[in-house]
Amino acid sequence: MKIAMVGSGYVGLVSGACFADFGHEVVCIDKDASKIDLLEAGVMPIFEPGLEALVETNVKAGRLSFTTDLAEGIRGAAAVFVAVGTPSRRGDGHADLSFVYAVAREVRENLEQDTVVVTKSTVPVGTGDEVERIISETGSRHRVSVVSNPEFLREGAAIGDFKRPDRIVIGAEDEFGREVMRQVYRPLFLNESPMLFVSRRSSELIKYAANAFLATKITFINEMADLCEKVGANVQDVSRGIGMDNRICPKFLHAGPGYGGSCFPKDTLALLKTAEDYASPVRIVEAVVAVNESRKRAMGRKVLDTIGGLEGARGKKVALLGLTFKPNTDDMRDSPAIAIAQTLTDAGVTVAAYDPEGMEQARPLMPLVEMCTSPYDAIRDADAVAIVTEWDAFRALDFNRVKELAKAPVLVDLRNIYRPEEVRAAGFAYSSIGRD
Ligand code: UDX
């Protein structure tokens, strides 16, 4: 089966490479010629573990190719996936759908066979209806079904998530669309990954509801962590204790500096916009967005508190370890590290930082921060060390070396990757999230 993937960004590239690995013939299309050139040369435009090898294998096998030419790319394709960006529109937080609609128009102009147009981009409820309207505008003689098929890939674990999904959600309005999607996902279907067939609008909402729910879960445990600190409880124990209830489940209950990334911040805001448009408020998500936003700065203040607070911190130095919104990615979008660094520099603190993959992306976002070549380089002469992202490389710091290099042995662990007894026994003043 031939599949066309329009948009070779994170979602399009990972999905395209995985579909090819399942034996389909896949063409990844992108307007950005420099991106296609890179891909043809075997260079990945994003950092994702395992992706480069997967692309290489499938290109060699002749199942995966790249082009800037949409007309050529979609020729003969049984399914055309739309995986272009839907960023937050400046000013109002609505998802910007201009790229999706532009693709719909281009597909309409170039269609030469019956096809299923599948929206993989995260799009607000009703977008599929509009895509269908655009495509049928000129009365094509070909049969087109517009289907919604949201992705649930986590950065850093995207290939595994694609190949072994908890579920595949298909929002289709007719049997033609459903049947083609069964063929597309047949290899996964045979692996017994459940496929959920629903209406297109339900499918579109599932994506937003899932992300908003996960963001809520994280924000809930983050506020519990604050309460734990006040009442002398341990948030990891509380998390374990509630997570053992099957109805709650232990995942996404790790307290930290607040969620970031390319999905949760954008999708929660877009959901609120939809809720507003339909005069059906989702107050719990409003609270989640506000709490998460203020948490990031609060984390900066937590670090400040260890070096004399707002008043006493001026002129001191903090080492930030980890800048990306989570490990195993180079993605800095809405990373809590940005607000933490800003809070520190606003207070006159010198900030030095190290991240295994995110430095290049981080540099323009935090121009006042000195970027270092290793964790120890950042720690030199620091009055406090703060772990912001839980990269494995920070899980076994050489405490003796840290003490020798730093001005004072102060460790703020915003991801709870160390055991308090252990760090204190090594002679550090140690603070973490939601525990003594
Ligand atoms: C998320 C969804 O998981 C995925 O299904 C969707 O398709 C896109 O958005 P991603 O943004 O890649 O994926 O990262 P994820 O692993 O979900 O983490 C998001 C943020 O939440 C990170 O900042 C992470 O540090 C934070 N987080 C996650 C917590 O603070 N605690 C947790 O328990 C889990």
Automatic annotation (TrEMBL):
Residues 319-420 form the UDP-glucose/GDP-mannose dehydrogenase C-terminal domain. It holds the Pfam family UDPG_MGDP_dh_C. GO terms for biological process: polysaccharide biosynthetic process; UDP-glucuronate biosynthetic process. Gene3D superfamilies: Cytochrome c1, transmembrane anchor, C-terminal (1.20.5.100), NAD(P)-binding Rossmann-like Domain (3.40.50.720). The keyword NAD applies. The keyword Ligase does not apply. Pathway: Nucleotide-sugar biosynthesis; UDP-alpha-D-glucuronate biosynthesis; UDP-alpha-D-glucuronate from UDP-alpha-D-glucose: step 1/1. One of its GO terms (molecular function) is NAD binding. Substrate binds at residues 152-155, 207, 252-256, 260, 326. It catalyses: UDP-alpha-D-glucose + 2 NAD(+) + H2O = UDP-alpha-D-glucuronate + 2 NADH + 3 H(+). Its EC number is 1.1.1.22. NAD(+) binds at residues 30, 35, 86, 122, 155, 266, 333. Keywords: NAD, Oxidoreductase. The active site is at residue 263. InterPro entries: 6-PGluconate_DH-like_C_sf (IPR008927), NAD(P)-bd_dom_sf (IPR036291), UDP-Glc/GDP-Man (IPR017476), UDP-Glc/GDP-Man_DH_C (IPR014027), UDP-Glc/GDP-Man_DH_C_sf (IPR036220), UDP-Glc/GDP-Man_DH_dimer (IPR014026), UDP-Glc/GDP-Man_DH_N (IPR001732), UDPglc_DH_bac (IPR028357). PROSITE patterns: PROKAR_LIPOPROTEIN. Belongs to the UDP-glucose/GDP-mannose dehydrogenase family. This is UDP-glucose 6-dehydrogenase. It comes from Tsuneonella aeria.
